[in-house]
Design a protein that fits this description.
Layout: E1 2-10, H1 15-29, E2 34-42, E3 47-54, H2 57-64, H3 67-75, E4 80-89
Antiparallel strand pairs: 1-3, 1-4, 2-3
Protein name: Antibiotic biosynthesis monooxygenase
Organism: Oxalicibacterium flavum
């Protein structure tokens, strides 16, 4: 399993941002190999994170090359006060089933 964490600072979000953000999330959910997503906010640093989980790098690459994602990436300076992306291979996931996204220990 892989995760792609998109960490960013906010400027002002407008209709175009929300439209593209929703379209990217919807596109991701329809890509074979999509496993789920989470969104986090750190009030202390005023940073936000969207974390997407994938079965494979190929599935992740499909989102990265999606036309809506490329359109948002080209316009990101309009809405974001900087960003970084962290791509990780998830070696293990465990914990409380009530928190979701539990997979067998050997998954990914």
């Amino acid at each position: 399993m892989y995760s792609a964490t998109f960490i960013f600072g906010k400027k002002q979000f407008d209709h175009d941002f929300h439209r593209l953000d929703q379209a990217i999330a919807e596109a991701a959910r329809h890509i074979p190999g999509y496993l789920g997503e989470e969104t986090w906010e750190n009030p202390g640093t005023r940073l936000y994170a969207n974390v997407y989980y994938w079965e494979s790098m190929e599935a992740l690459q499909t989102l990265m090359q999606h036309p809506t994602h490329l359109q948002a990436k080209a316009a990101q300076a309009n809405w974001l006060d900087g960003y970084r992306v962290v791509i990780s291979e998830v070696l293990r996931e465990y914990g409380e089933p009530a928190l979701g996204m539990q997979r067998p220990a050997n998954a990914g």
